[in-house]
Amino acid sequence: MRHKIVSRDEWLKARKVLLAKEKKFSKARDALSTTRRELPWTPVDKNYVFEGPNGKEALADLFGGKSQLMVYHFMLGPGWAQGCPSCSFLADHFDGPMIKDEMAKGAEYNYSVDKIPSQELPGLSAFIQDEEGKVFHTYSSYARGLDTLVGTDNFLDMAPKGRDEGALPWSMAWVRRHDEYQEKPKDGSCCA
User: Fold this and answer.
1) Are residues 143 and 55 in the same domain?
2) Is the pLDDT of residue 49 over 50?
3) Using H for helix, E for strand and C for coil, what is the string for 12-60?
4) Which terminus of the chain is less hemmed in, N or C, by CB atoms within 10 Å?
5) Residue 32 backbone phi and psi in degrees, to 5
6) pLDDT tier at 146 (50, 70, 90 boundaries)?
7) Domain assignment of residue 15, given as a range
């Protein structure tokens, strides 16, 4: 790979230009996050039932006594022996927010293992429960909208070759379930 090579002074000048763009991006991301939190809420009127460690539970039960709930839509199609490798990879990043939340933020984190077709997209939904117990849907995001949840992607984006996914058949073809990284990649779709 040939890449432009410059003096330290030229590099520093280019780095300062990028730093200004990074700061602008951070401020834009902060403004976008504020706008996301200002979205109107919609009541959840459907009676969603989940199968959990305590048996069948309603959506309101998943809050665990907290006011906020984040639900990850984990892809596990009918007849699949294991969940989607990309979903598993993303779920491997959940421990950090959960630990910090226990100290300060008051949100419960859950993921639903939905029996959904492989053409569906993984996603994340946010909910809030008011003092009377009414549940409201406040936000949802899918596919690339989940990138900010994956610390590995953000870390790789700072590396010289980035995520280096350009020659892959799909962007996350390199991802495995956390205990499968010694195995060779399988051909086909990410969830086959």
Assistant:
1) yes
2) yes
3) HHHHHHHHHHHHHHHHHHHHHHHHHHCCCCEECCCCCEEEECCEEEEHH
4) N
5) -65, -40
6) confident
7) 1-38
